[in-house]
Amino acid sequence: MKGMILFSVFCIAALSSSADEITSAIAATFSGKTAVITGAASGMGLCTSKTLAQEGCNVFMCDINEKGVKKAADEINALGKGKAYAVVADVRKFADAERSAALAMEKTGRIDLLINYAGGNEARCCKSFKPFYEQPVEVIDWGLDVNLKGAVYFSRACMPYMVKAKSGVIVCIGSVTGFEGDGCGSMYGTAKSGLHNFVVGLAKAGSPYGVRAFCVSPGPVLTRPAMAKMTTSLGFASQPQEIVDYVLYMASPKGRSVTGTTHIIDAGRLALPRSSTSGFLEAEKKK
Q1: How many Cβ atoms are within 10 Å of 22's Cβ, its own excluded?
Q2: Residue 38: which domain range?
């Protein structure tokens, strides 16, 4: 027993001392590569853009928020490491997805990584806090278009270049709501569950050409203060960088065996009894 305890202490100490080096080594594998990131003006999309650029990656930051994405790209470029390109794009328009992919190829000649972050609960984003059966059709369409079709459009636009290069990784960002459902933002949960299956199709289509695809489904993430009010079995919401680090680990050569699967990072949200959670908007309603 004493030997096991000493061994455990040794392992914990070794892991703690080398965590930064491991993270840095994984991120460094993206140096000189090109990433296309949607929803890049804020939240985890912005965090990922900064992390990759810090390691010398060319980052094409796609977002509908023109002012926000240009400001973010300027701040990244001021650091003088990886190059950030601000791309004003609406993920609901396939033409914008095609233009974004074409720009990445024009400027760098490659697309190594696509991360589909753009999304949001339609009830919150459209400020329509009503049960599904009262939601306007425009709100329903927004929820499906941004959360599902956006990832489909950008994957369709970027994947041919990856297939031709026989290399590439596509990441879709799901949500625990894809498992829980939501009575107000019902399309958010529906779209996220669709992404869980979409990456299976992408993996089947891409595997013969060395193209991988997977989905990461977070629980509450502190991209907004309200997320701290959502319940998890561990009693906290994740930090954005935690999700970003996991995504980049899996997208790096360290995750080369991972494709066609969904990975949940939710601090034990889904481990709670279903009666103790009331959907994605519970935090909003507690305000």
Answers
A1: 13
A2: 28-285
